[in-house]
Amino acid sequence: MTPVQSTPPKYNGLYCQSPDGNSLVFPLKHTEVEAKIAGNLSRVEVTQRFENPFTQPLEAVYVFPLPDEAAVDDMEIKIGDRIIKGTIKKREEAQQIYEQAKQEGRTAGLLEQERDNIFTQSLANIKPGEEIDVTIRYTDSLNFEQGDYEFVFPMVVGPRYIPGTTIDESGDTDEVPDASRITPPIVPEGTRSAHDIGVTVEIDAGVPIQNVHSPSHQLQIETHGEIVRVQLGGDDTIPNKDLILRYQVAGDNTQATVLTQSDQRGGHFALYFIPALDYRPDQIFPKDVVFLMDTSGSQQGAPLHKCQELMRRFIQGLNPDDTFTILDFSNAVRHLSQTPLANTPENRELAINYINQLHASGATEMLSGIRAAINVPAPEGRLRSVVLLSDGYIGNENRILAEVQQELKPGNRLYSFGAGSSVNRFLLNRIAEIGRGICRIIRHDEPTEKVVENFFRSINNPVLTTIELNWNGSGETPEIYPAIAPDLFAQQPLVLFGRKRDRMAGDLQINGTTAKGERYEKTFTLNFSETGNPAIAQLWGRARIKDLMNQMVTYETKSGVEAVTDTALTYQLLCQYTAFVAVSDDVRVEPGSQSVSMNIPVEMAEEVSYQGVFW
Length: 615
Hints:
By secondary structure, this protein is of the alpha+beta class. It has three domains: 21-250 and 574-599, Immunoglobulin-like, CATH 2.60.40.1730; 256-274 and 463-570, Immunoglobulin-like (Sandwich); 287-460, von Willebrand factor, type A domain (Rossmann fold). It has an eight-stranded mixed β-sheet. It starts with 15 loop residues before the first strand and ends with a helix.
């Protein structure tokens, strides 16, 4: 078993002390984020400022997060007044261009994707004392949940547990062969990097917005008519937690939004739809729930306390005829009971005592936990729901997703809860999607009552199931993602992205079954006569890539890799098989001269325990 790191990192003098002596000065000085939100879409520009504090040329390598659904479509580097645009290439080709430029003494930037939410920025041949800006741009959809729009910007890659046998000195293992690329060094306990972050979000919803707030950060809010401008407030500029920004729009205009875009690649559309259906608390069927808690070292302290609080509310919120059990995992899997328990006062008391005595330490052997939870014997005639509570801090995500995809029984569901400041949203979102459930993220310091209430509204009864999509119109049938529409829960939108190559208009009909057992039908007219927002095409490309990658969680196929790569190149998108590369025309560093190469350390995620991680 391989922990993230057995001891905190040492930097061998490759840093400078700040004037106040409280922070370490590394090559990454500042990150500036500018986001513009219009309706359901955000366009985000991230600028990273690097400076070489050494007396030799520098190569800086920085591992950082972006949203797991982001369509990253642009990168450039700025040297003085010069801007060098990045170009999208197949990943291997981009790496070769970068390495050749580095050897020739040219300044070069390389942007790669390691996971859907983890990226690597490499910047070669920064001259001593020189500043270089790298700008990355992406488009994303906003989350909509229980009446709130939500914009999230992650700021740090949390520490990952790496299972398997080490295969070289880098820390790569047979189970996570790219472990070294997703585990950046972490600044020592008691210190911090001098790197800080600024964020500006401009919201133009087309109607007045209200109740702008953040559970994660202090905010400065300015309102100009229907446009709201939000910035980080006070000293809340340490990049060690996700920025979560929430707001509501005035009036009830969230039922349906249809956006289209047309170009030579076809007609594209995005559909955001919340069916006007009532949740039916009087039609609740007995269910069986297996709660699976992560009690590994990274959960130590505030994250575990929040999960325990959630679990106590979960147990108290079960319906009288429900059955349940609890498992927890770290190095091994432990059970409250080998078989489901009836929801009696005695069993609830037994469960609460079990929850209260949990402690966090050791490895995150999630695969064993998932297998055990899926295989708990299920009572006859009950819907099995597995509820995972974890920060998701692992490196073998695809092994987990493959297990759920292959072994979760038909009709059963897997839900995920992430508790903490910077959880692995990629894993937690995907595991719920593949498990036909929903994902909820809650900070360690957020109230739990409303979250648990809304969760039980969902888990008790979906409002629309067996959803089918039918095209009524001329020409070919649109290519729509997700290819299989998920069940809808209370106040959860159906989000679809489609492309129609021939750009011919028609009607998209949505059919389903309501909680009452009645047939549901809704029709949307799609017209591609106008150019529209180019972001829609990018989001369709990103949705197609995601669908194709989900099909390869067990193993890659040649046709799958080619389809992902072709889509990414056609839509100028970053993926695991493409990369952006930018190279200066001139030779800026003497070829072959001595230089420094450095992996830039990152902050420890807020409220994550050093003792729990460096075990």
